[in-house]
Amino acid sequence: MSRAKGVMLAGGLVLACALAAPAPGADANTGSNQAAFNNNCRTCHSLKKGDNRLGPSLGGIVGAKAGTRPGYPNYSGSMKNSNIVWDEETLDRFIANPEDVVPNNNMKPFKGVPDPEVRKRIIEALKASSGD
Prior knowledge:
single chain; 6 helices
């Protein structure tokens, strides 16, 4: 390879790394939190307000009462009647095993996320979402 091509290649790699790095002051975990949500929840859920899919939008879910998101008609009776208010502890238990927390929910075939670190990242993504 010629020296000029090598310098161009090296410059391109430096630029690509700079563009991929988080902005100064950004939380380095934000991307991995979003990735954890995407890899485990996005098939059925969104973090955008009103973007209900197979499951309801989860944007702004922390602090909300379970089974009450507007515009989502497919909650199970058990979810509607659970009287759960989503906090970090309840979300962690639910994400680990939904059936243990709300029997007969509509989350099937999802069986849960066994890894506590992945659950923590999902919850951080949920906490960061305002639903907008």
